[in-house]
Amino acid sequence: MMQERPAQGQVVCWSLRLWMAALISILLLSTCFIASCVVTYQLMMNKPNRRLSELHTYHSNLICFSEGTTVSEKVWSCCPKDWKPFGSYCYFTSTDSRASQNKSEEKCSLRGAHLVVIHSQEEQDFITRMLDTAAGYFIGLSDVGNSQWRWIDQTPYNDRATFWHKGEPNNDYEKCVILNYRKTMWGWNDIDCSDEENSVCQMKKIYL
Amino acid sequence: MVQERQSQGKGVCWTLRLWSAAVISMLLLSTCFIASCVVTYQFIMDQPSRRLYELHTYHSSLTCFSEGTMVSEKMWGCCPNHWKSFGSSCYLISTKENFWSTSEQNCVQMGAHLVVINTEAEQNFITQQLNESLSYFLGLSDPQGNGKWQWIDDTPFSQNVRFWHPHEPNLPEERCVSIVYWNPSKWGWNDVFCDSKHNSICEMKKIYL
User: Fold this and answer.
1) What CATH class does B87-208 carry?
2) What is its quaternary makeup (chain B)?
């Protein structure tokens, strides 16, 4: 009787240990499998590839420049042909015909881009070097009501990075913005959204 | 006694079934894990990424053209700037005269090799870029001088196209090949001395994105 009991106990312990080992193995393998599936999925959904596919429908040529500083191991940055690269964006000036703000944004969208969002003085200086001082250009900024200015790509409106002309904005009913040249400098001017102007399109570079 | 036996038998069967299930689960998971690791490895070792990185050291800009026919879902074919695009290759006409081996070295330093001509259409495309008063090294040579011509990228010569000028090749000592314009046969190949100086044509495969 006494001998029997210890023997049974030992057997139970042994079985439990084996089962624990088996369960742990299965859990480990499951974790590894899920992890590697996630990694594979991330690679498949790699952003540049999707954007490359999208751009294929809008553009027939890309120009890629070697990046000195490697951005997460990407050594090339690309813009469509005839677009100008600056920082991490590409820019295009639409001068084929003037249009309202809505139409201008549509035209940018048809190129896989949006009306320009200006983040800094350097960026504005770069953009304005491409522009004709006699024309006005829609940018991707509008007043959604009560002087609440909003960028088209949801970039937070930063009062310290605004470049309004002196005395602007000056009319509550002028809810769209153009970049134009006044006297000696480029700056922003609020205008009616239905006015017809040129525009500047912007898209993120594609990194390879 | 009989009951005990039956009871023990049932227990053993039950345990075996559970163990079988556990082992099968582990095997399945192992297989899935290995398979997905292999797939991930394939993605990471993707040729375009590696070649893009290599080209980064030779060139400062690329031009990519939208390819109508999608080559395995890759929609863009890229060549370095100033290189000409045709089919699945990029070409650069070198305007410096050099020995054959130096010409090849110069191509290699750009991530390319001397041109290998695979079709008449390719030769026609190339010759449109050339100056009729000059001759250009091809990636074709006969190192042993025994008439066994070989392409520099190991394309089999015997199965490939040939565009020799009439009566060429004509000298065993001329172990390299240039493409040259002669009247009246126009563009064709001529065997030349490897240590004579000619212009050259570099070729590399496009990068598909």
Assistant:
1) alpha beta
2) Associated with FCER1G. Heterodimer with CLEC4D; this heterodimer forms a pattern recognition receptor (PRR) against fungal infection.
